[in-house]
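Example (one chain per record):
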Amino acid sequence: MVTLMVNGERHELEVDPEMPLAWVLRDKLGLTGTHVSCALGVCGACTVHVDGQAMRSCVLPASSLEGRSITTIEGLSSDGSHPVQQAWIAEDVVQCGYCQSGFIMAAAALLANTPNPTDRQINESLSNICRCGTYVRVRKAIHRAARLSRERK
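Predicted structure:
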């Protein structure tokens, strides 16, 4: 039995303790916004927040997360009102879209710690991979989200 706090809800799950969080989220909780691509922790499509930090869920054993707060793309905002989500739409970042939930989660964690990042900080902080090559629009969206966040304060 593994007990996880996901998007503010407590879940008691009968899963193999070594089952990666990404599969628990998708297969056991039906939270399919977290995507899996490489399953090696390299591409970032599976990025979620654990205690506010961006982490690759495909390499995190579920049992290692008991007592920690997990946020998925579904929990970032219920209505798409998070500044990063709004900026992603405004900057038309998405092409195929497969990697975008991971990028959004990584960007949200970056902005929580660095409210006004430079391009260099964005490049160094986000190691997610996009096969469509939307990196320029990702940076523009992160800068827009930073402005939106400042305007809301």
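Caption: The first strand starts at residue 2 and ends at 6.
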